[in-house]
């Protein structure tokens, strides 16, 4: 059980049988009333963000979160399909649940999935991943201003800005949290 003072940013709790992540919280005390907590929380299943106010003696339960390893199989219009690496059960997550991770999913990639009451709800990727550049325009000669960039496409179809010296067929390292180029990978 969490009380008001426990609901700090980063904490995950259960509300209406769904897990919520505290994004921000602000404690205040009114003259004759009790303490209140104004918070901004994110539903980890739907991704929606709401503002929630808790009163002095409100209590919430800690969310029952876990993690499993799963292999990404394929996707269709609305869903992304995975296979649990231990039980070999197959299941799907909606496009909203996968979120920005869809930009980095290749068939066969093993990922961590966050679970709530043993049901997968969210994809967790490594912060740095390597990808092959599949489309790249040549760098324009004479375009040597500092930090000159061009757009390329990686094997998942995701497009990002990279330095001019990156060419088609090269392997690059990408930060999956920001979607930015980190470095060229030497073979």
Can you offer a commentary on this structure?
The protein is an all-beta fold and 187 residues long. The protein has 3 domains: 4-62, SH3 type barrels (Roll), CATH 2.30.30; 65-124, Nucleic acid-binding proteins (OB fold (Dihydrolipoamide Acetyltransferase, E2P)); 128-184, Nucleic acid-binding proteins (OB fold (Dihydrolipoamide Acetyltransferase, E2P), Beta Barrel), CATH 2.40.50.140. Helices cover 2% and strands 53% of the residues. It has one helix at residues 95-98, and strands spanning 12-15, 18-29, 35-43, 49-55, 61-62, 65-75, 79-84, 90-94, 110-116, 119-124, 128-136, 149-154, 159-163, 171-175, 180-184. The strands form 3 sheets. It has a 5-stranded antiparallel sheet, with no helix packed on it. Strands 8-7-6-9-10 form a 5-stranded antiparallel sheet. A hairpin with a 3-residue loop joins strand 6 (65-75) and strand 7 (79-84).
């Amino acid at each position: 059980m969490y009380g008001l003072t426990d609901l700090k940013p980063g904490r995950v709790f259960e509300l209406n049988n769904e897990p919520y992540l505290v994004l921000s919280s602000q404690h205040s005390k009114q003259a004759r009333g009790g303490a209140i907590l104004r918070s901004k929380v994110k539903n980890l299943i739907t991704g929606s963000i709401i503002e929630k106010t808790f009163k002095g003696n409100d209590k919430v339960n800690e969310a029952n979160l876990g993690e499993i390893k799963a292999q990404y199989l394929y996707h269709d219009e609305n869903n992304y399909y995975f296979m649990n690496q231990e039980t070999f059960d197959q299941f799907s997550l909606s496009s909203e649940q996968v979120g920005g991770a869809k930009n980095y999913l290749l068939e066969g990639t093993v990922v961590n999935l966050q679970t709530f009451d043993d049901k997968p709800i969210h994809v967790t990727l490594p912060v740095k991943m390597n990808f092959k550049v599949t489309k790249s325009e040549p760098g324009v000669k004479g375009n040597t201003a500092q930090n000159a960039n061009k757009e390329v496409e990686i094997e998942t179809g995701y497009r990002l800005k990279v330095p001019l010296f990156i060419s088609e067929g090269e392997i690059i390292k990408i930060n999956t949290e920001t979607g930015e180029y980190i470095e060229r990978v030497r073979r």
